[in-house]
Amino acid sequence: MIIHRYGPWEEPPKPPFTLEDVVRAATELVMRYHISFNEALRYLLEQGLPVNEFLRNDGFDTLLEEYIQKVDSMQEELRGKYDIKGLSRKSARRFKTAASKARELARNDDSLARQIEKAARDKSASALHEARWILRRADKDSVELEEELFKAMAHAETLADTEKFLERFGDVFHGKREPSPHEARDVFKQYETLEDLRRQLENAKERGDLFGVDEQNLKNIMGDEAYEKFNKAREDTMNQLAEALKTTGLVERDDDGVFKLTPSAARKVGSRALSEIFEQLKMDGSGVHLVEMKGEGAVETARTRPYEYGDPLTGLDVAASLLNAMVREGSTKARLRREDMEVAQTAGTAHANIVVMLDMSGSMSRYGRFHNAKKMALALDALTRAYYPQDSVSFIGFATFAKRAALGDIMNLAPEPVTFAGGAVNMRVDFSRIRDPKAELAHVPRYFTNMQKGFELARSILQSQQGTNKEIILITDGAPTAYYKGSMLYLTYPPGQPAFEATLNEVRALTGEGIRINAFLLGSDFDSGYFGEDEFIQSMLKINRGRLYQPEPDSLTRYAIVDYITHRRMTMET
Question: CA-CA distance, 285 to 573, in Å (whole number)?
Fold first, then answer.
């Protein structure tokens, strides 16, 4: 017999919070908002990352407990000195008296009397202020009424402040002295500041919220020495955190003390992104399937061929070979001969060299374009490592200039900030006159789209690699707006034919070397094609005969992975 027992719902225990969770959360911020790991970690800490769930510093806890007790002592001193409830009662009596006198003095003015009556009923300072305005507008000479209204306003404000304070903290004051209204405001502010600091210190101790303490309040209340001790203890805890993070293998610290994500972290991000795509493909039944390859060697297809001398017997198709023998002898007890043997037909590994070009121009910061571009790049790296280990993948980031990026750098790449606002740009930089690039190029805007230079760098990388299957995966959101002509760099906006033609010349060079360009356009800021972007893209496709996709940013990784798998399979089977 099954017995059901019912009781109050209890929240199930949460899984333990790990250092890997911290790195994963920070990594997502790095990827999505293009900030450093240090900035991401600091943000998490400022948001109340519970450090002590995975890192406990007893010395820091002891110091925090000491400060909490000191704040409690200061609060108790105030509670034992003042009688706030008594002040509230006195303010209420004085307000009632002043309002009653004012109402009596205004008895001959119905409008004013009604306003004072309303103020008395609501204990409202603002209503009394309106009554004073009615009195002045009537241009009546009533000094006594003016004074009573002013007194009633002051008592109403004191009463409101006192009741608000008591509502928050309760009747915890047990002293004998009733503070003056002015003194009461100082007491309220002091007590509230102490209470805020106490809660912040408790959060730091209980939840590990290291950056939730108001440092200026701490310094003002506890003194300079206590402030310095707190900062030193927090710094020691952060150093402990740094050492702990390093043990994950996902984070390292450079010579300047700056945290950086390791290539292992990049590979983890790529693997997660790839897993997400495979889950999506599984759910929609797209038919794209992979079996992880272990080791090296040729890839078997579904076809077979007759055995030839020297073929490895590991590729023998036993079923097909036995069937041939049975057909030849007309019996199920046939003896296998060499001419019966068949082996699986292989297509070789079809080694491929890929260069992923990531557009880092200013417009890529919009609509999650660059975040998804980085995600796609890391997923592609994960795909080749797991399923096509013979393939090589390189990365280039390009904007006004182009640079090669290592796998570990991908997560920290960011679109170049836009430094010119509005209007056309027509700028030239003569590199033959540049002697100190760092100093002399500081004024050059970095956010333009120099596809030509990116293609040139990609061609240089692919020229140095063996194999015939060479491909560029271009991820961009617009047409070229920068190009070189000799030693001269041109920056143009809006895009125009000179930039298009310079870029297409490089496309012709790539095509001549058998390098295919597959472009993923993440939307364009010129959807109308007003400046000739459509013609540029069509010309590029006509010259190179590559493939073109126009996915939404969120779909980029899926499009790229499916395209890669599909066309690698076709390459390997031909």
Answer: 22
Give me the amino acid identity at 492. Answer: T
Instruction: With a cut of 80, say whether residue 347 has pLDDT above it.
Output: no
The three-point CA angle 506-508-509 to 5° equals 65
SS3 sequence, 244-290?
HHHCCCCEEECCCCCEEECHHHHHHHHHHHHHHHHHHHHHHCCCCCC
How do the domains of the chain map onto residue ranges? 19-80+186-260, 84-172, 300-346, 352-572
Please check whether residue 83 is in contact with residue 177, taking contact to mean a CB–CB distance below 8 angstroms: yes
Taking CA atoms, 4 is separated from 7, 9, 11, 12, in Å, by: 10, 14, 19, 19
18, 20, 23, 24: CA torsion to nearest 10: -110
In sequence order, which ranges of 442-555 are alpha helices (DSSP H)? Answer: 451-463, 497-512, 533-544
CATH of 352-572, one of 3.40.50.150, 3.30.2270.10, 3.40.50.410, 3.30.980.10: 3.40.50.410
Contact 379, 557 (CB under 8 A): yes
Predicted local distance difference test score (pLDDT) of residue 216: 92
Q: Which of 472, 500, 526, 501 is nearest to 363 (CA)?
A: 526
3-state helix, strand and coil shares in percent for the chain, rounded to the nearest 5: 55, 15, 30
Whole-structure pTM value: 0.66
pLDDT number for residue 472: 93
Query: What CA–CA distance (Å, rounded) separates 141 from 136?
Result: 9
- For residue 339, the 8-state DSSP code is G
**Residue where the block lists tokens 């991820």:** 475
Distance in angstroms (rounded) separating the CA atoms of residues 273 and 380: 9
Where does 82-124 have alpha helices with state H?
84-105, 110-122
* Separation CA 166–CA 284 (nearest Å): 61
Question: How many CB atoms sit inside 10 A of residue 59's CB?
Answer: 11
Cα distance between the two ends of the chain: 64
Q: Which amino acid is at 416?
A: E
Q: What is the reported pLDDT for 515?
A: 93
Residue 17: the pLDDT is: 64
Q: What pLDDT does 463 receive?
A: 92
530-535 contacts at long range (C-beta below 8 A, 24 or more positions apart): 531/479, 531/494, 531/495, 531/496, 532/479, 532/495, 532/496, 532/497, 532/500, 533/478, 533/479, 533/495, 535/500
* Dihedral pair phi/psi, residue 305, rounded to 5°: -150, 165
